[in-house]
Amino acid sequence: xxxxxxxxxxxxxxxxxxxxxxxxxxxxxxxxxxxxxxxxxxxxxxxxxxxxxxxxxxxxxxxxxxxxxxxxxxxxxxxxxxxxxxxxxxxxxxxxxxxxxxxxxxxxxxxxxxxxxxxxxxxxxxxxxxxxxxxxxxxxxxxxxxxxxxxxxxxxxxxxxxxxxxxxxxxxxxxxxxxxxxxxxxxxxxxxxxxxxxxxxxxxxxxxxxxxxxxxxxxxxxxx
Amino acid sequence: xxxxxxxxxxxxxxxxxxxxxxxxxxxxxxxxxxxxxxxxxxxxxxxxxxxxxxxxxxxxxxxxxxxxxxxxxxxxxxxxxxxxxxxxxxxxxxxxxxxxxxxxxxxxxxxxxxxxxxxxxxxxxxxxxxxxxxxxxxxxxxxxxxxxxxxxxxxxxxxxxxxxxxxxxxxxxxxxxxxxxxxxxxxxxxxxxxxxxxxxxxxxxxxxxxxxxxxxxxxxxxxx
DNA sequence: GCAAAAGTGTTCGGCGTACACCCATGC
DNA sequence: GCATGGGTGTACGCCGAACACTTTTGC
Lengths: 224, 224
Known about the structure:
The structure is a homodimer.
Chain A: H1 9-16, E1 21-31, E2 34-41, E3 51-52, E4 55-57, H2 64-76, E5 82-89, E6 101-108, E7 124-128, H3 139-156, E8 168-169, H4 170-181, H5 187-197, E9 200-207, E10 215-220
Parallel strand pairs in A: 1-6
Antiparallel strand pairs in A: 1-2, 1-4, 2-3, 2-7, 5-6, 8-10, 9-10
The structure holds a DNA duplex.
């Protein structure tokens, strides 16, 4: 690591008590037009009984990306989705003032692909963002940062690809955007803008779903 | 830290070999219409003789912010400037595969306020961004990320306040922007756009600097 | 008066936004 | 034939980009 070993005599002192590195993954999805986040009920101290963002220690030989991918897969069974580093927090747990850091990531998953871990303890569950329970540590702050980033990313990237199945209707896509942005969007403007980006393209398929005109299906031109 | 102690038996194993946490600070300035970055010549292994981004281990009881502030002050004597977390890297030093992480920050400093640390070894020096020497570890990547973020920040924040003295001319401000963006800007459009943001305001002062009309001085309305 | 940098306005194209009606289908 | 959601076009305001001349000063 890029440490100036020589001019920092404190470095050696600090090394005597090496901090741990944890990875947290804020996992978002959109179900029933609501933005939801995956939380885990802690079944042991500290903060037993509180809900928290899934996370765990960085393992030996593992890169940060790998740890985030692993953590996401452990909880949801999903891989190959939007997953991006968010921010690194040093003081999430004010009680343990040991210099531990938590590297937070955020992920977007299609609810249809998720298989939540079926543990009895430490069980994960989806929580709607405007109905979050009291969280352990300072996890509210992490979720706030993640949500801001998500709103931002949505404006100029194809990140939504990760929240939807291969094929989807324009309405489904719009509902995802509306859930994340938290406001209604104009149908015509939305369609025009999204098609202008080249993130998505029409397929030749349609989907009939009721007593009305069938909807054309679209796909993301790139999934990454 | 938000670790799931119970369902992650690996966590205890990983704790046996706790990784270290370092903080790196990419310090930018603009001198002579050139974007420059502060580098340090390493005087001991690893990577002895190579230049690197200033950094050091997180000290006990210190938050990440505090470590970044301290590191910046050690090298430049400057405090109270734009300083923001950038990204956290786990594999900067491929040789030491010990799970150490480097939390990179980036800072913007006014060259007039800087007093570089005057060591004989580990001496810091400014390097123009388009003339960077071979760097230790993977520090080129860190600088690339920092530069991208800087360009981005400049578009919609008042970050430039940190690169200029209290009072400055419109031309000086434009030169800072041009150095960072790497392209010339139109004088009239630049002036109009910046004044429209309310980041800056005119003062009643002028500065006469040669056989030509004196320039009005401006200031940032907010310095944070 | 002349050299040098400061200061100023207008035009144009693109983009986001507001807004209302016809279309295709199942029953 | 009617209820239901799918699909479409236009007008306007704002913003970024291009572009050239006058003003103020020191010598």
